[in-house]
């Protein structure tokens, strides 16, 4: 389920705000968009937490802990963005910062 910018989202029937990071999902040939709200959602974009961990150079069990705790240390953000791009997943530093800001506000 690759991340896309709001301008790529279809099937919502509403105007989307470009400052909100979104994820594009497909179900029965229909696309739906919703704002990314957690680091767990970002990690879920990879086939497994173990694959995510291998991509960014950490152990699989640590990636599972990050997913469960909804955390992603900022020192790994550049690597996450780079590896996401290699997999065709649209994750940017802006998206990660937005998720971190939402997490702190909660």
| Proportion of residues in β-strands | 5-15%
Helices and strands, in N-to-C order?
Answer: EEEHHHHH
Mean pLDDT: 77
Global outline: globular
Intertermini distance = 26 Å
Secondary-structure class? alpha+beta
Biggest pleated-sheet summary: 3 strands, antiparallel
State the low-pLDDT regions, or none.
1-32
Task: Give the topology.
Blueprint: E1 3-4, E2 22-27, E3 30-35, H1 39-43, H2 49-56, H3 60-69, H4 77-87, H5 93-105
Antiparallel strand pairs: 1-2, 2-3
Helix pairs in contact: 2-3
Explain this structure.
- This protein has 106 residues and is of the alpha+beta class.
- It has one domain.
- It has 5 helices and 3 strands.
- Helix 2 packs across helix 3.
- The protein starts with a strand and ends with a helix.
- The N terminus is likely disordered.
Provide a brief overview of the structure.
The chain is of the alpha+beta class. The chain contains 5 helices and 3 strands; from the N terminus they run E-E-E-H-H-H-H-H. The radius of gyration is 14 Å and the shape is globular.
Features:
106 residues; three-stranded antiparallel β-sheet; 3 strands; alpha+beta; globular
């Amino acid at each position: 389920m690759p991340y896309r910018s709001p301008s790529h989202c279809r099937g919502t029937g509403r105007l989307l705000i470009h400052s909100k990071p979104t994820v594009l999902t497909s179900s029965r040939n229909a696309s739906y968009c919703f704002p990314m709200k957690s680091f767990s959602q970002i990690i879920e974009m990879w086939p497994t937490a173990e694959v995510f961990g291998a991509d960014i150079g950490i152990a699989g069990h640590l990636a599972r802990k990050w997913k469960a705790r909804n955390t992603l240390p900022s020192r790994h953000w550049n690597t996450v963005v780079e590896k996401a791009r290699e997999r065709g997943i649209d994750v940017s530093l802006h998206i990660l910062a937005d998720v971190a800001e939402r997490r702190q506000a909660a």
